[in-house]
Amino acid sequence: MGSSRVRVAVDAMGGDHAPAEIVGGAIKAQQELDVEILLVGDPQQIEACLAQHPTAPKMEIVPAEGVIEMTEDPVPALRKKPKASINVAMKLVKQGKADAVVSAGHSGAAMAAALLRLGRLPGIDRPAIGAVFPTMVQGQPVLVLDVGANVDCRPKYLEQFALMGTVYAQYVLGSEQPRVGLLNIGEEPNKGNELAIQTHELLQANERIPFTGNCEGRDVLSGDFDVVVCDGFAGNILLKFAEAVGGILLQILKEELPRGKRGKLGVTVLKHNLRRIRSRVDHAEHGGALLLGVAGVCIIGHGSSDAETMCSAVRSAQEAVENQVLDRIKESLPALSPS
Amino acid sequence: MGSSRVRVAVDAMGGDHAPAEIVGGAIKAQQELDVEILLVGDPQQIEACLAQHPTAPKMEIVPAEGVIEMTEDPVPALRKKPKASINVAMKLVKQGKADAVVSAGHSGAAMAAALLRLGRLPGIDRPAIGAVFPTMVQGQPVLVLDVGANVDCRPKYLEQFALMGTVYAQYVLGSEQPRVGLLNIGEEPNKGNELAIQTHELLQANERIPFTGNCEGRDVLSGDFDVVVCDGFAGNILLKFAEAVGGILLQILKEELPRGKRGKLGVTVLKHNLRRIRSRVDHAEHGGALLLGVAGVCIIGHGSSDAETMCSAVRSAQEAVENQVLDRIKESLPALSPS
């Protein structure tokens, strides 16, 4: 321990642009945030990346061997490669040497490694991946979970997601009175598929969950909800669609704005405002997905993470640790329906 | 019969802005398209709307009494109100007095009325609602189905949707070799929930369906697919999310572009280009959802339809009739797996 700074184990080998961008992001985080980074991976490769940043602060390197490839089946691969970077990073948390893990590698492997090395929280059947989206209302994000960990869900899983999401919204996103919605295709309680109808009843009955009703596709980004629960199939479709749509809009702007002489002039004049638009639409500034329900703080970065995104992911980890989100979730678990 | 023009029965009483906007759309359609409109609803109200358009062409009014309200349970309401506008419109198709129905009213009621009055096509277990989205590639839309009729689906329903979608893409959207995708959360055949995994096998095995693999959320608007099948829960979430996102993006542009002196100048200079952007992003120009699998051509307009949208919906109906999409679907049905 010694230092009171949050210590984040960064999986330097995971992600499409690893290790260069990951190390770059770690440096940025160490410079900008009050955190201590542990870089987990192949020391030689990490050293080579660090050498590109001569003014970078000193960072501890924790040696690991190999990485779980995107094409590998997570559980057998994790067993076959006990020294893989994600395994080593999780062990650092288990041993109390780090407070959180950040990885932009194989998300299924990160989830499986967290389950194998850290285990589930008591009362949680399935951990969920939560993603934070910006909404129409600036400064008021919405947490959507699950966005991909559990494709076939039971109602009680969604109740667990709702409870964990409530705590996260309260203590990390700063919603004093979070409004929890159930992703559904209509407003009425009897709308939706079997899962939604049964989940609606559970959420309605749980006093610890500030359930405000169904959230239709059109309401997700309205700012009317702080937490939206759904199964990992619907959530993943939504997440990936949302990510793509931002890119499509920017593409349409790029194609249509500069058309003609007036277009070229207008674009020059609006340069600054267009940059603001890009940053509001672009997903890159938002910091990774959270793994909720395991006995440790884990942030899963996008596979295509660059240094900027990685730094945001480290910030998410720091916020979760500083706000003691894990303890808060543990305290709330007795409110769950019996399994 | 007599005339070779397509005859479209328009439910004048259905929709948030009925009957004024619906009648307005019908007039626009009759003026711009080579169709014959039958206005179904309360004659007095329709006459009053027509009186607002003194130069409008003459249109036949088919009297109906009452409308299915948004809050009503469709099937009992349809039985209780046999003369409701949607019932009368469907009967016109059944009796051969109209070639298609267009309604912006209660979509569940339109679907139920089609089932009650027209029936299903042989071999189709469940009709689907299909929505056409613009993609990244201009002039190359994608048909997503089901977007809300069937919240809990079996694999064979999705196979049926895929076959109907293929025919629609070929004969109405003009895709010579449609590429059919299965909405899913990963590219590999073993990814997804139970429904997706089993549907993947059926689609792969059906030679009549040009299945090209899984379509992730990020791929829906890529232009890589002409048809995307999914259950009505995921599809409805996607549809409503997409509709809302267009509005949010326009809102961001509206907020950010005119900021500062340079912003105001730039917006003035770019006026024309911004209008092009609005029309590419805005959903209003796209013409209603299709009800596929019933024994008649039915187009379901958005509840908030205005005259513009209604006119597009009539155009969709016209295209479906002129391209004999119903006969083409019937011809293709023997290609389905046995029930």
Short description:
With 339 residues, chain A is α/β, with parallel strands linked by helices.
Structure write-up:
Two copies of one chain form a homodimer. By secondary structure, chain A is of the alpha/beta class. The first copy, chain A, folds into two domains: 171 residues, 3-Layer(aba) Sandwich (Isopropylmalate Dehydrogenase), CATH 3.40.718; 125 residues, Isopropylmalate Dehydrogenase, CATH 3.40.718. The longest helix of chain A has 25 residues. Chain A starts with 5 loop residues before the first strand and ends in a 7-residue tail after the last helix. At the A-B interface, α8, α9 and α10 of A face α8, α9 and α10 of B.
Q: Indicate the radius of gyration of chain A in whole angstroms.
A: 21 Å
| Envelope shape of chain A | globular
Q: Can you tell me the CATH class of the largest domain in chain A? A: Alpha Beta
Query: Roughly what percent helix of chain A?
Result: 40-55%
Total of DSSP H or I helical runs spanning 4+ residues of chain A: 12
Proper CATH architecture of the largest domain in chain A? 3-Layer(aba) Sandwich
Strand arrangement within the widest β-sheet of chain A reads 3-2-1-4-11-10-5-6-9-7-8
First-last Cα distance of chain A: 37 Å
Q: What is the typical, i.e. mean, pLDDT of chain A?
A: 92
CATH superfamily membership of the largest domain in chain A, which one? Isopropylmalate Dehydrogenase
Q: Biggest sheet of chain A, open or closed, and with what strands and sense?
A: 11 strands, mixed
Poorly predicted segments of chain A = none
Could you please say which CATH topology of the largest domain in chain A applies here?
Answer: Isopropylmalate Dehydrogenase
Quaternary form:
homodimer
Q: What is the H/E order of chain A?
A: EHEHEHHEHEEHEHEEHHHEEHH
What class would the helix/strand composition of chain A place it in?
A: alpha/beta
Supply the number of structural domains of chain A: 2
Q: Which percent band covers the strand fraction of chain A? A: 15-25%
Most extensive interface, chain pair and sizes: A-B, 56 and 55 residues
